[in-house]
Amino acid sequence: MKSWFGLVLHTLKVFILFTGCTILFYYGIMWINEEYESYHRYDAPEGAAIKVSGTFDEEKGSMFERLILFYLNGE
């Protein structure tokens, strides 16, 4: 009878520990989600930022140069 009670007690401890860790993890993820939900990634840059976008002029380079650029930069 004593070993059965000990087994139930250990099982209850593991269940409570698992449930507590699961709840802690869930609320941690919810806290991180709330922090990043209001984070605006696409705001206009501040300071001395410049726009770095442009088109590639096909007439400037040959097919070989474009292939080398592909292998070097992974474009």
From TrEMBL:
* Transmembrane portions of the chain: 12-32
UniProt keywords, alphabetically: Membrane, Transmembrane, Transmembrane helix
Q: What InterPro entries does UniProt report for this protein, alphabetically? A: DUF4227 (IPR025321)
Protein name stated in the entry: DUF4227 family protein
Q: Which organism is it from?
A: Mesobacillus boroniphilus
